[in-house]
Write the structure tokens for this entry.
Amino acid sequence: MTVEGTTEKTTDVDARLRVIVVDDDPLARRVVKDTLQGAGITVIAEAGDGREGAELALYYRPDVVVMDLVMPGTDGLNATRRILEEHPECRIVVLSSTDDDELGILSLRAGAVGFMSKTIGLDALPRALHAAHQGEPIISRRLTMKLVDGFRRIREDGSGLRPVRSPLSSREWEVLDHMCKGRTTDEIADELVVSVETVRSHVKSVLRKMGVRSRQEAIDATRRLRAGMVAEEPATPSAS
């Protein structure tokens, strides 16, 4: 689902959607809450910063979290990562004061399923949350094209590619991607904004699931896998 021009109808089941709103602006929270409740959505909690939002989400286990990005203390990206590490079924839609595509990509990489600008009419928000709960991505057409363009530019060696079915989790693949780039444990921790111990735990899990004994073996196995995936891609038909 793209943000513009949504026309989906709300069903009775969708009306029971349970949502948490996280934003450091009390007025913004009130407006979002009133909009959602007016559309039949249950707002079960509100939070004024990322830390509180993550704690409430892990306690109440909502269907969807509406997450602001820039907040004091724990920001929206870190809060998103924390929620999804313990509650991966939760859908998080980032509601940002800017429509910056780079922030949108960062939000998606953190695990959000949607990125919307606060400049978009709030009447589109309830429909977007219903769609997110049903497994649809909530991004603008412009951001969609940016993602498609990025995919087209994937290196020929398959760097960044991941198999459709894999025993590794999304976060483990993220750690493995950084390993393939030659980054150290400390550098990976800084990049992902997690503790060094968390990275080490992910690395151990990656080695165990891949059936290898060292980081280098994991990197070599990943490169062979990606080389095979690139080789299997169908050739572009030539003009007759």
User: Anything to note?
Assistant: Residues 2-15, 232-240 have pLDDT under 50 and may be disordered. The two ends are 37 Å apart (CA to CA).
